[in-house]
Amino acid sequence: MTVLRIDNVSLTFGGVTALDSVSVAAEQGLITAVIGPNGAGKTSLFNVVSGFYWPQAGSVWFEGKDIGGVRPHRRAYLGIARTFQNIALFHGMTVLDNIKLGAHTQLGAGTLAAGLYFGKARREELALRARLEREIINFLEIDHIRHKPVNELSYGLQKRVELARALVMRPKLLLLDEPVAGMNREEKEDMARFILDVRAEWGTTILLIDHDMSMVMDISDAVTVLNFGRRIASGTPAEVKANPDVIRAYLGDSSAAAPLRKTG
Questions:
Q1: pLDDT per position as a tens digit, 60-87
Q2: 261 with 213: CB under 8 angstroms?
Q3: What per-residue confidence (pLDDT) applies to 86?
Q4: Contact of 221 with 31, CB cutoff 8 Å
Q5: I need a labelling partner for 11 at 20 to 30 A (CA). Which of 20, 23, 36, 173 fits?
Q6: CB of 234 within 8 A of CB of 224?
Q7: What stretch of H or E contains 18?
Q8: Mean pLDDT on 43-63
């Protein structure tokens, strides 16, 4: 089943075209990567899916429904969660509190009950803590830092906390924007393992963008390539790596035999 379908989406900012009739599909339970040089339109595409940008043309379909008119917070309730290229955590709060913020779509207590912390609000809070321990904190191996302020953590651990906050939403579609950017080799290997485990454990459909070609090609089931806002290739990792248009976009080289390499 196609969980996400982006049909001929175009997005412009003044005279600048960020996306030009781009189409991408993410199939149930698979990892689909969107790659391309800097400025290719990858994050703009994510912002269209999330509802932060409204395209001038085209449509976005989620589980068979057109969500073009759905506001960002309502898309979260539908089951779309994301991480960000630049870490978007609350630095004055602990790891645990940051993660709990992602559970807003799972809670139903009213403002008064939540403020006074009684009845349904208290029961929901206790159940949430238990689920966090069981499903998220142990899963991502962050038990040892759960009470630390996030500003005291390394960059790689902050990325892991941001993933935890997205996962607590129990997403049907997980958007990962540069999940291993800025990490060292060990941190990248850990994050790649966690992404694969998320898919294996919960069957989550994942759409990711990243510049680390080694990681992308290792863990992805399908890859779409953008260049200057246009889709130039789509297929399996092996097909994409051998595509002459992709090689030219990355290397400025017309030789199809040249290897695909990481871009900055």
A1: 999 999 999 999 989 999 999 999 888 8
A2: yes
A3: 83
A4: yes
A5: 173
A6: yes
A7: strand 16-27
A8: 96
